[in-house]
Design goal:
Number of domains: 2
Number of strands: 16
Distance between the termini: 33 Å
Strand order of the largest sheet: 1-11-10-7-6-2-3
Shape: globular
Radius of gyration: 22 Å
Strand content: 15-25%
Largest sheet: 7 strands, mixed
CATH superfamily of the largest domain: Type I PLP-dependent aspartate aminotransferase-like (Major domain)
Helix content: 25-40%
Number of helices: 14
Length: about 400
């Protein structure tokens, strides 16, 4: 990478700036030999729960563990159906399968890329039947109960939670937020007449702290947030081989503990997260202004009035994505695609029998989305160059030509 190159994500600068704080974390761990659990994990859990406006937080080894444990703790059992969206990372559906359930899909809103509440209602009304005796909804064809819904807060923006929560309450279905890309995102509940943080609205929520996230560890890490003490306690058991105390196993669990050093790093970074999220919002506003007038050429991210996105990614849609991505790469500008294959069409799920056309909105977005550089510290000059090169590739000579 040359000095003039613009990376898709800059993980070097932020860690260089926090190097002294990280060294103190390492010194603390080495002095105490507290590498698993202990005060650093507990301290981070308390701080992150407070940040998310949730009562409880359970640190785990990854976002995948977080979602799997949250589903199991919420009561998802073998052969249940769990509904989510097709345009997400496979970890979402892996967590469902590994909890013993079968994933099924609901198409997305074309503007927000998040679960369409209307299509969720339609699925439950048309494909399912209600059993008044058991107070469960069952899939008509398979006879399996639909026990949970996983709305994915994608690209840093929350799904439309009010109608999702309403329909799930009506059908006695648990809601587990996949908040892996949404640390600090907010949603204005028209029902409650106030803003809510990601991770505070469902029965539980799963977070990933993979290094590229808005709040990223220096390795693997995740967390579950919840207001339900039983869910939290079950997650604590699941992450540590089911142990209520050493060698006393109440249930069969997993090895899914959060490393103390990673917890220390995350706790140090958490204090900076509001500032970093604001820098992302400002960068998104600059992109929006630079692209003004390019309607019909570039489809920009859409932020509804009920959303405060933290712009984990800045995702646009264009017709000839492959050509644009190659031309940006040729001039040293990094990009990403999140995600190129809708999960119902992934080879891993061939046995579920889905076909092209089953979820047309998710399929179209998968074919046209492109993630542009987005990270705290992204400069105005860098963004202007990115936009100039995008427009040049799309046969618009300059930003000024749009004005």
């Amino acid at each position: 990478m040359t000095k003039e190159d613009i990376p898709f994500l800059d993980l070097i600068t932020v860690h260089r700036e926090l190097q002294d704080e990280f060294v103190e974390v390492l010194k603390t761990a080495l002095k105490s030999a507290g590498f698993i659990g202990g005060p650093m994990v507990q301290g981070f859990e308390e701080d992150f729960a407070r940040f998310c406006e949730a009562q409880l937080c359970v640190g785990v080894a990854s976002g995948t563990d977080a979602l799997r444990f949250a589903l199991i703790a919420a009561g998802v059992k073998s052969d249940d159906i769990v509904l989510t969206v097709p345009n997400t990372f496979i970890a979402t559906t892996e967590a469902v399968s590994q909890a013993g359930a079968q994933p099924d899909f609901v198409d997305i809103d074309p503007k927000t890329y998040a679960m369409d509440p209307g299509k969720l209602s339609e699925y439950l009304e048309r494909k399912c039947r209600w059993n008044t005796k058991t107070r469960q909804v069952f899939h008509n064809e398979t006879g399996r109960p639909v026990t949970a819904v996983v709305p994915v807060h994608l690209y840093g923006q929350m799904a439309d939670m009010d109608p999702i929560l309403d329909v799930c309450a009506h059908y006695n279905i648990k809601v587990i937020e996949d908040a892996c890309q949404a640390q600090g995102a907010e949603y204005f509940s028209r029902k409650d007449n106030r803003w809510h943080k990601a991770g505070s609205m469902g029965h539980a929520a799963a977070f990933s702290f993979y290094p590229g996230k808005n709040l990223g560890a220096c390795g693997e890490a995740g967390a579950v947030t919840t207001n339900d003490g039983e869910i939290a306690q079950t997650c604590r058991l699941l992450r540590d081989h089911g142990q209520s105390k050493k060698y006393f196993h109440d249930i069969e669990g997993y090895n899914g503990r959060l490393d103390a050093i990673q917890a220390g790093f995350l706790r140090a970074k958490l204090h900076h997260l509001p500032k970093w999220n604001e820098q992302r919002r400002q960068a998104a506003e600059r992109y929006d202004k630079f692209f003004a007038g390019a309607e019909g050429i570039v489809t920009l991210p859409y932020q509804p009035s009920w959303s405060r996105s933290v712009y984990h990614l800045y995702v646009v849609q264009v017709e000839d994505r492959a050509r644009l991505q190659k031309q940006l790469s040729d001039v040293g500008i990094g990009t990403g695609i999140h995600y190129p294959v809708a999960l119902h069409l992934a080879k891993a799920y061939e046995e579920l029998g889905f076909r092209l056309g089953d979820f047309p909105i998710a399929e179209r977005s998968a074919a046209h989305i492109l993630s542009l550089p987005m990270f705290p510290g992204l400069t105005l000059d860098q963004q202007e160059r990115v936009v100039t090169e995008v427009l040049k590739s799309l046969s618009v000579n300059s930003i000024s030509e749009l004005k």
